[in-house]
Design brief:
2 copies of one chain form a homodimer. With 296 residues, chain A is of the alpha/beta class. The first copy, chain A, contains 12 helices and 13 strands. Chain A has helices at 7-19, 22-29, 33-47, 63-90, 103-108, 110-120, 133-141, 188-192, 204-213, 228-236, 246-254, 284-294, and strands spanning 52-55, 58-61, 97-101, 126-130, 147-151, 159-173, 186-187, 197-199, 223-225, 242-245, 259-261, 263-264, 269-277. At the A-B interface, helix 1, helix 4, helix 5, helix 6 and helix 10 of A face helix 1, helix 4, helix 5, helix 6 and helix 10 of B. Chain A binds a DNA duplex (30 and 30 nucleotides) through helix 3. Chains A, B: Residues 5-62 form the HTH lysR-type domain.
Chain lengths: 296, 296
Amino acid sequence: MSALPDLDSLKLLVDVGVLGSLGQAAKAAGIAQPSASKRVAHLERRLGLPLVERTPRGSTLTAEGRMVAGWAAQVLAAAEELMRAVQAVRHGEAAHLRVASSMTVAEYLVPRWLGELQNREPDVPVGLDVVNSADVAARVLAEDVELGFVEGPSVPEGLDSRVVGTDRLVVVVAPGHPWARRRTALRGAELAATPLVVREPGSGTRETLDVAFKGLHQASPRLELGSNAAVKGAAQAGAAPAVLSGYAVEADVATGRLVEVPLAGVNLVRSLRAVWRRGRPLTGPAAILLAIASRP
Amino acid sequence: MSALPDLDSLKLLVDVGVLGSLGQAAKAAGIAQPSASKRVAHLERRLGLPLVERTPRGSTLTAEGRMVAGWAAQVLAAAEELMRAVQAVRHGEAAHLRVASSMTVAEYLVPRWLGELQNREPDVPVGLDVVNSADVAARVLAEDVELGFVEGPSVPEGLDSRVVGTDRLVVVVAPGHPWARRRTALRGAELAATPLVVREPGSGTRETLDVAFKGLHQASPRLELGSNAAVKGAAQAGAAPAVLSGYAVEADVATGRLVEVPLAGVNLVRSLRAVWRRGRPLTGPAAILLAIASRP
DNA sequence: TGCACTCATAGCCCCAGGCTATGGCCTCCC
DNA sequence: GGGAGGCCATAGCCTGGGGCTATGAGTGCA
């Protein structure tokens, strides 16, 4: 495990690239120029690459520096997404806009929408509750929150809704698992009869899966775990195939930590919906957020 | 700018979730238990959320903790991708497998492929050269590297190739720009006649653009910049519309920092190809990497 | 030739975060 | 009932990374 970099230093590097000098980047970071100088030098030592070309009239990134800055920007974007989501979770009380969401949507999509909302309306504090789908509906009905996001096809009575996306449950295995090399699509019956690593009963993911398996002979799960991360971990360790939201495994499949198994004959697509109280048209920030979420 | 979190602490949090106790997570991180205890407490204070439920027989994540751990996992994945890529760039000398790639592929796709290669063949040090497309071809021909990745349709003589993906140049503007609200697709002629923020001549991105504009009346660029990050920055600042690889702006569009403008009547799709010396079939790690990259 | 800008070095200082040692709490088992 | 063995938190010590200021060297411009 090759010690992780330090986000502040990465930010500094990116800023050097954008601003053209160590001193400017230091100012942007709120530190003195020599500190920035030292930090960047430290980063160069740690990565073992020359990153910055110093000249008496400014600094530019080396070829390596530009590459590293590109990757660093990705890391920073993810970190900012985290901070945004945390803000929203924390500001539950004082928020001008209150949103409730079930887990998958909250984890992978809501932070992005909130990011754009913040771009357009920087002054609106947003509160985010993450609960299960049934509770989302209850909160919207109780007018605890203006807007909710839920998974699954059923829209509880008393709510208006709009589809804002779709999620596909996928089957993933560790790269070493026999199914990783499978060329023929897996049939629903075979999947149902296999002991799987799955989310716990009551979660939206599990419910979708159980509905899809209705009528098939279904083996008991190999493991039931309470978070997407735990399920992924178990699957990576090779315990058994796992079934998870496509959003949750996107990055892992892209980087090869998990392999997606092709699937046929079983419908694991579910729509993601925004819901709000019927006959109570959305206004202000809630309307903007819905518009953002509805965009293709 | 709300101070960035610390990756080691995030890793610790994720590990607590997976391993079920602070002490275990501490051991995994190579630190003593009280240190981990303090770090996690510190993280909780900083984010303003209770993250961990401590009991005398272990610790589990709270609801908030599971959410934060989910986002943290995304950040950590991006950071690991960075470290992998840095390793590959640095190990240029001693590598058993040498790869050259042009910028866009190197920045957004190669680290992922290398990640999977490392999963399958942990002991192969990989060297990565990032140069422009012409140089990639030269290095492959000179047998400096076994495998190259280039953008664009032209395959230089003497090379075999396989398409491993496609990239689409997209037009993006700051959210405040008039085009951000445009409903009708932009025509090629209008785009060509607009002063744009673009990459420098000689870059693959610029070349593709110039080819697509051939025959149209073309305005001179508003700005020419040497990296995708710089172009994005200028576009975000509202300078002018920018044209960039879809991979480069994916995250920014998703989070609303940039808005993609629909485009019609001009072909900005280019294929990404793996190239190798003709008549020199790939073997060993190079063959595996090609197989990984070729996967849909 | 001075001024304005760049960056690096030197030297000081402080606290964040590491460590060990200890104690409370709970469960399991003898 | 009473260890034993997990868990965690607190206390107190110590070190080093990384902050700061002050300064000097290099370059370009007026």
